[in-house]
Structure formats: C-alpha cells, structure tokens
C-alpha cells in the first residue's frame, strides 16, 4: 500500500509540477486498466449545467472490472466517482473475459447512454447497453445488443460507438453474427425509452466494417467511417439517410487503395454542414511510413483533398507507439478542427493542433505533455463533443482524456483528464512586447523601459516579452531579441512567432487577454 501511495504521489507531482504544459490536468484514477478501452469513441460528455462526466473501466484491488462514471461540477478541476456501478457479473464485472471497451453519449435530458463490450480475442465477444441518470441514480435494465442482433460468442467485432441525433434517437455501431461486419442499430423510440433497437443493415456494402465511427450532420444523416478489410485494407465513408431508410450505394475511400491497412480513424460534425475526418494510412507494422491525414466533407463539394496531420517513419514508431494515438473534434459553431495526437515526428510529445476553415494546414497550439519516447507513454486520446445536444458541443470547452503509462507494459496506468481550453484561448505574438502587431527595435525599447525605468510602461502580456521562452521576463530576453534582429544567423523568438497563436507550451506568465493585434 505504501508503494502504491508513493507511486500515485509521484504521478500527481509529475503531472502538476514537472512541466508548465500540464496546467489543467487531473488524474482520474490509477490502476491496472485505467482507460475506456483502445477502441472507445466518446468517453466524456457535458450536461446542460456544465457538469462533465467520464466513463471508464477500473481494475479494483479485488480483481473486479467495474464500469464507472466520474463527475466534475467545477470544469474538470475535481472529480467524484458516482456510486452506481453500470455493469454486473454477466456483463463484464468479473473475470474471465471482463469488460474491455466502453463508450457514452448524452441526450437533451441529461441521460447517459452507455455502450460497452466484453471483447476477448479470439472467441468471446458480447456487447451491452443501458441508460443511466447521473442525477437520480436510475439505471435501466441491461440490454445485450449481441442478443438483439443474434451475434454468437465467436463472432468477432470491434464495434464501440454510440450517437444521439437531433431527435434524441440513439444510434449504435453494433455487434453482428458475421465477424468484423459492424451493423447500424437505431432505437425504436426517442431516448431509447423502451430499450428496443432495430438493425438498419450492414455499414459496409460488402465484406467487413470494423472500428466504425458515427456522426450525424445537420440534415439528420448518419455518417459512418470504417476500416474495410478488402483489397489492401481501406478506410471508407458511407451515409445512411433515416428519412428514406436508404444507404449510400457506393463508399468513398478516404485513404488510399495501394497501401496497406488504413485501420483507424475519427469523424466529427459541425453546425455549418461539414463532416471532419482524421485517419491513418498504411498503419501495418511493416509500413515504412504511417501517415495521419485529414479530410472534410459537405453536401455540395463532397470530400476535400487530403491534408497531412503528421507522419512517422518506421524508426519513429517501432517499439514506441501503436497507431491509436490521435483523435479529432471540431468547434461546431465555427468549423475549427482540433486534433490531439502523440507527435512521433518530433519527440513523442502529446500535442493539440488546430485548423480553421480558412487555414490550409494544422498548427500545433499546445504541447499537452513533454517529449517522451517511452513505449505507449501517451495513448488512446479522446476529445469531448458532439453536434447534438448543443450543450455537449466542443465549442463549450476542449475536454480530453488519455492514458499515461509511466513504465512500458508495466501497470498501474493512469487515466488523465485535460482541460485543453486553459492554454488555447489567449493569443499573442512572442516578441511583440508593445502589442502593435509588428516585431522590431521598438519592442526592445518597450521591454527595456518596462524592466528598468521606474514608473515606466507595463506590458499587457508578459508572456509576449519572454522572447527566449525560458519562463521568465528579464534582460536575457532583450539580449535575445536584439541578437535576433541584428545578428545574422541568430534564432527568432519562440512560438507563437511570427504569427498569432496561443503558447504551445502553456506558459504561466501573466497574459490576461489576447493581443489587440491578434484576430
């Protein structure tokens, strides 16, 4: 027990004190599971009062695997585990073949719709669903989705997504009698009030559909992205229209058809009519390059050209990471896209990148965790946010979780919550000390006056004065700035420079508002 307490203390100390990048992070729980599973779709939601809820699996000291919900009423600063356990002995609470994956959605009445699976390869697969009211503690009966669809134990699946549309209909990527062929299920009543679901058919027009992700657009159509194990192994998109009951005849290949196994991706919808998708191309372990890419879709233009999010060579990913290190969300009101990923192309740091509707590329806006090349150190990231209900929009805050592994393959692990809104709001240009929108000798004069002239000027954003980005504002910054301006070959100020942006390292120097020069 003393060793466990010491280890937990060290984990907390590292997260809170080890780097200026970890502001807004909280360990939710630490144990031998500490995750929502490697294939979770959404594990975090927000209710109409701003309360946050995280769904996950916890391995207890007595060997059980309860499906738990944790709640925060203060924006993610503190968390409480709710007393109601959501699974039972038949649905994965105990060994053998315990619960291994879970996902969650919220309806406009604040009811949580929970999906989970007992997925043990090669021959034990069962999928379950229930409703849960976190205010009253009400729990509906557990529905075994596998029984609804007639899927036997040995029918293999990775299906683990659940979605609420604008009419509060519940949609599930469901387990099916054929292995690796996800089906789309629809609740018979709004809010799944009678706990009954009807199969709408195979998500793929033929062959497999695995790792399915769901999103609903402003027209109520259900967008499915999935891995299809045909040809070279492709990541595809297909639409289901609930109004007509018709599936799109053809799929669209998001990645490529000449590589190897585009296994995995994410999909998100905004209120402007766009669908956003990130996916990994050529993710087989023998591939010379993992390419993580992005496309957007709208009804009039179809799918956009690909944008590279980041790439990793064999040397950059081997014995360091799986491909399940990225996730995607969007600001529903503006169309700005957020991607969280472990940047294997650099030093293995966990970062948040953003792309506006007018920007051709993603720009890293925050370093969430420092560089680390340990195996699976940061893995299974999730981003909160769905188009419906509106109070769960990503525009209310960038809430994410990920699993942190201090020692490769050696539990306990930690499930971490991060409020990424903390570091993504204030925008400035580093070096623009007087905030006039330019970087020149006037900024050095301003900085020197602020440092040495009694009663002189006061910087509105001290972070912009930290030219060398060492966490302080002093004469060294002015020396650095003069050199960058007048000594050939000297480095420029650190990011954000030369354009506007938040501090990618989440600096703690005072900067109460964005620079007037930043839109």
Topology of this structure?
Elements: H1 2-17, E1 25-31, E2 44-46, E3 52-57, E4 67-72, E5 80-81, E6 101-106, E7 112-120, E8 124-132, E9 143-144, H2 145-149, E10 161-164, E11 170-174, E12 183-187, E13 197-202, E14 210-216, E15 222-228, E16 234-241, E17 246-247, E18 252-253, E19 265-269, E20 275-281, E21 289-298, E22 302-303, E23 307-313, H3 314-317, E24 326-330, E25 337-343, E26 349-355, E27 363-369, E28 378-383, E29 399-404, E30 413-419, H4 441-452, H5 462-465, H6 475-486
Antiparallel strand pairs: 1-30, 2-3, 3-4, 4-5, 6-7, 7-8, 8-9, 10-11, 11-12, 12-13, 14-15, 15-16, 16-17, 16-18, 19-20, 20-21, 21-22, 21-23, 24-25, 25-26, 26-27, 28-29, 29-30
- β-strand percent reads 25-35%
Instruction: Give a short account of the largest sheet.
Output: 5 strands, antiparallel
Overall tally of structural domains: 2
Instruction: List the quaternary state of the chains.
Output: single chain
Reported by name, the CATH topology of the largest domain is Neuraminidase
Poorly predicted runs are: 1-22
Termini separation: 52 Å
- What is the C-level CATH assignment of the largest domain? Mainly Beta
